[in-house]
Every structure is written in structure tokens, then in C-alpha cells.
Amino acid sequence: MAREREVGTLWIGGALSWMEQLCLKSFVDAGQKITLFAYEDIPNVPEGVILRDGREIIDTDDFIKYEKKNSYALFADWFRLHMIAQNPGMIWVDTDVYCHRPMDYDSDYVMGYELPDSDRVNNAVLGLPADSELLHAMLEFTADRYAIPPFLRRGLREDYAAAAAAGTPVHVSQQPWGVWGPSMVTHFVRAYGLGDKVQPMEAFYPVPFPERLRMIRKAIKVEERLTEATTALHLWASNKRELGIRYNGLPPEGSYLAKLLRQHELRPEFAPIRSRGRRVFTYEDEDNSAELLARTGLEQVGSVADLGGTAASVVLAAHDRWDCDITLIDLRPDGSWAQTPSDWVAGYIAHLQAAGVAQDRIRVVASAADLRPVDLLLNLSGFGDVNKVKFLEPVLRSALHADSRMLMDIRKGTGSFPFLKAFGSCEKLQETSEGGGKNTRVLFTPDPPRAESGIDDGWESLARTLAGPKGFFTGNGAHSFLYIPRGRTLVVTFDNLDIAMTKREDRRPWGFEFIEKQGWSMLGVMAGGWTWYRDPWVSDEFDRLAAEGFFAQFERVVFYGASMGGYAAAAFSGACPGADVVTISPQSTVDRSVVPFETRYKVVWKADFSGKYGDAAQVSGAARRVVLLYDPYEPLDKGHADRFTAPNVMKLRASMLGHRLGSSLNQMGILSPIILAALDGTLTEAEFYRHLRARRDFPRYQRELFERAVKKGHIKLARRLGNWVLARGDNRAIRLAMQAL
Predict the structure, then answer these.
(1) Mean pLDDT over the full length of the chain
(2) CA distances (Å), 23 to each of 203, 214, 263, 726, 741, in order?
(3) Distance (Å, rounded) from C-alpha 558 to C-alpha 562?
(4) What angle (nearest 5°) sits at the alpha carbon of residue 8, between those of residues 3 and 13?
(5) ∠ CA 373-444-311, rounded to 5°
(6) Are 243 and 215 in contact, with CB atoms under 8 Å apart?
(7) Closest C-alpha among 703, 699, 697, 630 to residue 660
(8) pLDDT: is 398 or 185 the higher one?
């Protein structure tokens, strides 16, 4: 009967990348017991791996490194010897060693040659008798951190001896790479004549270090090297640099590594390789792409764009988080547009599709004319870092709207910060000096349209056409009113001109087609920026319309808006007492003396919210009915909703759908019937909550419920919910989180 062996390894440095997850899980899936020693909590260890405190082996906070490479490999070389000594029979494996098949060696000597026609012994896989002379000799040698290794070349030994004689001995951390690793192991194996105990190269190193890139080439390039002797296969973590620089931290499709990940059902984009080179930014405090997305502050994203194809892991994480559409912007490094698709495009699309993204959710842009505004733009390791920032201008002008955000890497000396100042503001997220230069990752927020810049000429021309001979258009350069007469019901909508003109292909105010189909008249009030309509001209215009009997000619008037527009709908309903109000996630006011809890919307903090149209919660008390939709789990939105206390208010709670819950309702396919019923005055609470049952199948809602259960410690409840969701279909976020429970 084969001997059952346990393997052990060590991890220092926070969260695991997909490579470590893959290797650890391979042992679990093969049925081989594996223990991971650590000195701190690791958030993403695969299920089935045994966790033990590294202090059981070496109780220290002195994690010595090879200083020239800033690598903990030196400490790991030391740790593995003590682990073997204290755990007889346990085999050490590096965290980049994959279990091809279980190791069932009878002998306690488990080690292998790493190069053809060489007697060099690698220690990525190492098993030794706990009482062996070989192990005792290496423990004794590593006890002296200033020892002069007898296996170094003569000139270096002489230099070290001279330094020691001068009273400045050379510490092991300053000595050559591998001095406590393969070089030492090889030396002592030779010294004790144990060459016959060493496994042939194909056992652990069928792909030797000089050929390590085979791991990221076609799978057959590795598979043709595997034999019956192969057990634990070294994947070579040094491949991480190449993966980080050229493949966005993910394994190329068709590669051996990609094949292994599918075999073990792991999603690499949730734990991508962190950079080992200049092109890809390194985050010391960031575990994965999902955390980076959280730092954007975006609650809803309908579209994400990758400029230059350098952020596949972040794009997939965004798609999983928000179920958003994906745009690939094929702008070449020299600022020219690709006449034929760049080399990265086909592979990128194949990678997205292999990850479950539908073809119709992916759009490729290869001309300035085809650029459309997106909610999140990714410009990582691109323009402003390895490419000239000036080529970014057409993208900034056409691919961003007022609510957009851009993640961007900036290299010192490129002039990116002064260049971006003309378009918006940058928040520094992280800085690094890796790769020989200072790099900064920033979150870019575009400036809101300037009121003094005036209403867009294209909008005025379009609006006058829409108004026709019986309607009207008025404006003062910062705001405008568009009236389109149709029937005896008037819907007054409030919208942001920037969004209407750049984010909507038809360049119409919100709900234009929807209202038109009902035969209702429309008064569209447009703001040329994030003004909250706090312009005396707007108030005067509403007073004028009321005095002239404009509202009195209609049988029914409804004021509608969301967020900023929701505030305006409730506030300016005071111009037509008895009107209905339909408002989604509104602010009651942004007067900081009244709502000190409101920390958003700094752009309007200095505006004057006094006057008869100032406090929406008070003004809307004169309305016939106020239908207020909001998420009570969004504390700021709840704070505003709590200020609407008049008896005419019907509050409809849409829990765990966020501030932009209109977008969530739309994705569920229930926004139109809800708003239609609200606008025509027939919406009841029972009807609303009947429609809201659709959220049970909505991935975001499912994920929010699941995450809240986990955060509150209700693990059994979370598992029940997760099993219920996954029995009805796939929710990748929950599926992956279930593996971690």
C-alpha cells in the first residue's frame, strides 16, 4: 500500500494570487493533505487547506529577505528546514508547486534535479528524514547568518573573508540568491553522497527554469514533457512578471495554466497576479480587482471600457459586480486608431467569452466617431504611463459623462497631472516606486459642465424642433425649459443636459419616448451641470408659468425626477399645489446646516437653498401625493427620506438596490410599469411590492443579501441562501464566496 504523505508550505504577503490558489487546491483535489503555515490572516485560502500558525515552527517577526530582490524566499529557505525537522515525514512544497498526482514516496528523501545534465538539486520540493545528517548539517549552517558559504566561487569567498576580518562580515541577506536554497542543498547532498536519493528532473521539474515560459504557451508545450514519474510540478512563480506585464495578471487562453484553472474551477480575475514590472501597478493594500472597483465609489455601472486592453481582470470583476456592458477601445499607443484590430483584441474577446460574457455585451471601438460615454473608463498602464498622455484627449472628450470615473496610472515626468487638470480632478489612490520610477494610480472625476459655458447650441436647435409651433423653449445659458404639448396630463421632468446629450443616443430628455407614447404633454427642465437648479432664473420661470395659468390648463400635473432631479421635482411642485410628485432617491435639500449628514455633492455645497422652493421636504407638503422610492439601507438616502413627513407621502422601500435604484429596477424589467402607474396615479403599495418580487432573481440583490448575512455572522443562513440561488442558476460572486465559507 502506498504511503500517505502530507505536504506543507508557507505564505507571507497578504492575499493569494490565482497561482497560489491553484497550487494549493490541486493538492486538496488530489486528496493529498496540505498544510499552509502563515503569520497573518490570508483572506482567500481554498477550502480544504489546513491552516497553521507559522510561529509553531519559528516564533519570530524577523522575516529575512534577499535584499537585492526584496524577496522572502530567504526566510522560506530557512523555514522549510525547521518545518521538516519538527514534522517528521512532511514534504515541503513551494506555493508555486502543482500536484500533478499525489506524492506517495516511501522514502523520507524527496528532492529532485532541476536541470538537464546537471547535479543541481532544487528545494521547491523537499523531503528529508527529520534525524538525518543532511538536515542537521543545513540547520547548523543556517544558524550562522554571517557564515561564508563554501560553495561560492573562490573570489567571492575571499571578499567575504576580508570583510569579516575587517569587522564587517557579509550578512546572508546580502549574499547571492539561493545561498540557503538550491546552492546549499546541492552542496550538502554532494558532501554526504546522497545523489542516489534525488529524483530525476521529470519528477518535479520537467519544464526547467530556462523553459519556464512554456507554462504560458500552448498547453501541449508542457504536457509533452510530463511522464509517469511526474508528481509535483513546479510552475515557476517567476512567470508572474511576464503574466503581469503582457497578460494583465491572467493566464493566456489555451495555455497550460489556463487549462489547470478550468480543471480546478478557479476564476483568476478575482485574484490576478500583482505586477513584478513597471507596466502594471502594484497595490500593497489591495487584494483583488473587486477592492479596486469599490474604491471608485460607483454604486451602479452600466458600461465599462478598457482603453488599450490592459485591464482584463478589472473588466471581468466589473462585469461580475454590476452585470455591465463592456467596451474595448482599440486606440494604438501612438494615438492612432487601429485600421485592423490590434493583436490583443481577439484574445481579449475570447477570454471574456470563456469567462461567460455574452458576445452582444462586448463592443469594440476603433474610431473617434464611435466613442460613446461609459460609466467607468480603465486606462491602466496606458496613456500617461507607458504612452504619451496627450493622446488621451479624444477619449476624455467623448467617452466620459458627468457621472463617469476613470482609473488611470500616471508616471512621474509625463505631465499627466497638469494635462488632466483641464478636464477634471484626480484623487491619488496609491503610489509606488517599483520599476525604477514613481507611479501613481488615480481616480479621475470629470468636471461638471460649466453653467457659464451656456446651453449647448446643438441642444437648443434640437429642443426648438421638438417643441414645434405650439410648444416653447426658453433658456438662460445655464438652464432651459422645453414644453411639448400633447394631452391634458402634463409631466414635468428634471434632467441633466450633459447626460441627455452625451449618454443617450437619441439626445432626448429623460422619459421622452415613454411620455410621448402615453399622449401626455411634457415640460422638460434641463440643468447645464450639477446645479440642483439653484438658479433664481429657474424659480422665476416657475413663478411666471404659474402666474400665467400654464399649469391650470391641465387636468393633471406630475413632477418627476431622480436624485438631483428628484429633489427638484419635489421642490418645484410648489409652483402647482395639488400636483403629484414621483421621486426616486431624492435629496430633501443640500443645505449643510439642515442636512449635516449629507457628505456627497460638494459641487453644490455653497449654493443657496433658501426661498420658497428650497426645502423639498417642506414644499412638497402642498402636493396631492408624493410617491418616494428609496433604498432604506443607503443611510444618506434614508436620512433624506426621513425628512419627508407630510401625510401625502407614500414611501416605497426598495431595499438593497442602491442610490441608483432606477437603474436596478430597469435591469429587472420593472421600472416602466412602476413609473407608468406612478405617473398616472394608480400605483399602490401592493402593486409596487408585487413588482419588486422580481429582485429575488436579480444578481445584485442576491449578492447584497448574501454579503449582509456573512457580515452579520449568519453563516448558516448565508449557505442556505447561496444554495437556493445556485440551484436556480449561476451567480458567480455567490458561487465563489460559497467556496470561501
Answers:
(1) 87
(2) 16, 17, 12, 26, 19
(3) 14
(4) 165
(5) 70
(6) no
(7) 630
(8) 185
